[in-house]
Amino acid sequence: MIDWMARIPAIVWAFCLVSFALVMDRWIPIAHGVVCQACGAILFLLGLGTSSWAWLLLARHHCLGLPTDAPPRLVQEGPFRWSRNPMYLGTLAIMMAFPFWTGSAYFWLACVLYFAIVGECHIPLEEATLRERFGMAFDSYCQRVRRWL
Predict the structure, then answer these.
(1) Which of helix, strand or coil describes residue 94?
(2) What residue ranges are annotated as transmembrane (predicted)?
(3) Is 31 exposed, middle or buried (0-12, 13-18, 19+ CB in 10 A)?
(4) Can you tell me the distance from the alpha carbon of 15 to that of 55, in angstroms, rounded to the nearest whole number?
């Protein structure tokens, strides 16, 4: 089961899960306030900033491509100093903004599912590729830097 889930890009999973939550929220809306909306805006901006920063660093080092492609370099700077997966973390933060904006619990479900799919399907494949390519350097990086935060 996990194999087919890993073939679908994580950003597609995020889009589908948020779309599902939007549909469910239309059927059963939940009230929310201004403070929650402000928290959502902060999460959204933090997530967008983290993902963008990580993407720009990977692009600068020519490390963009399929997640299972061996990159030419192990990037350990910028947001990669405190998270091995800042792009996934940023996407999760963006997704976490939606329940604050809408007040809908369905978005929390989408966040949990995204976290599970990425953590169980995508990250293990990527880490296996990095471990094969960089060996002990990647193992050392894993000991210093947590998977998420």
Answers:
(1) helix
(2) 6-23, 35-58, 87-117
(3) exposed
(4) 18
Q: How many whole angstroms separate alpha carbon 71 and alpha carbon 126?
A: 10
Q: Could you tell me the residue ranges of all domains in the chain?
A: 32-144
The span from the CA of 51 to the CA of 55, in Å, is: 6
Q: How many CA atoms lie within 13 A of 138 on its CB side?
A: 17
d(CA 56, CA 95): 20
pLDDT tens across the length of the chain (149 residues): 567 888 899 999 999 998 888 887 777 666 567 888 888 999 999 999 999 999 999 999 999 887 778 899 999 999 999 999 999 999 999 999 998 888 888 899 999 999 999 999 999 999 999 999 999 999 999 999 999 99
Q: Are 86 and 50 in contact (CB under 8 A)?
A: yes
